[in-house]
Amino acid sequence: xxxxxxxxxxxxxxxxxxxxxxxxxxxxxxxxxxxxxxxxxxxxxxxxxxxxxxxxxxxxxxxxxxxxxxxxxxxxxxxxxxxxxxxxxxxxxxxxxxxxxxxxxxxxxxxxxxxxxxxxxxxxxxxxxxxxxxxxxxxxxxxxxxxxxxxxxxxxxxxxxxxxxxxxxxxxx
Length: 173
Prior knowledge:
The protein has helices at residues 16-31, 36-46, 55-60, 84-100, 119-132, 135-138, 146-153, 157-169; strands spanning 48-53, 66-70, 73-79, 109-111. With 173 residues, it is of the alpha+beta class. It has a domain at 14-132. A four-stranded mixed β-sheet has the order 1-3-2-4. A hairpin with a 2-residue loop joins strand 2 and strand 3 (73-79). The model is unreliable at 1-12 (pLDDT under 50).
């Protein structure tokens, strides 16, 4: 499956939030990602090798979180003990990095550790927000508590809080 982001989405910058979340929303609708098992099948189709690691290894953070070395050559290290909602967030971020930053494997890409303060991390996060919490669905219910929204969208609480922060910054809520 070849899915290319709009050219503007691959350019770094503060204005990329809307472009990336619009592309992510389209991607989420066109791939119909709903359940973790569907997402894992999609990852396999994209060539992702899921390397499940222990909680101790995850906390030690001595590995590369994500390595993309070519088309269908993707390695993701993820903690086997994560709940499904958190795995879903990471899986979608990986797809975002694959599509936006490696240009479907045409360019090597590596994310050394999770939570790096880079534009790449921010854009991967924007992609996952666009897929999991699309603006047109989230904004009408944004007045609910963060806990209610987390349950409603089946995402970790911090994703709801980050989404609200982005939307406030864009003056959308």
